[in-house]
Amino acid sequence: MNEKSYTELMKKSAMKKKKLKESFVLDLYIDILLAEVLLNKERAKLMKEIDEAIDKGNKTAFTQLSKQYKELAQRFGT
């Protein structure tokens, strides 16, 4: 028979829970990292477009892009 003791079963259960927690934390870290990368990319894109609007003297585009930038900053608390 392949019966395991209570202690062995508890150790196995504890290890499984630990691995699940580690996996959750790792997934959470990856999500945060990806969100930050996307935020930085979107912020850089908006800044470039704002600079281009300033260079061209396009006040309408500047105003619209500045509003988008402010909304982005508020959404991500930056």
TrEMBL record:
The residues forming a coiled coil are none
Domain called IDEAL: residue spans: 33-69
Q: Which domain of life is it from?
A: Bacteria
Instruction: Show the Pfam families listed in the entry.
Output: IDEAL (PF08858)
Identification of the protein by name: IDEAL domain-containing protein
Question: What species is given as this protein's source?
Answer: Cytobacillus mangrovibacter
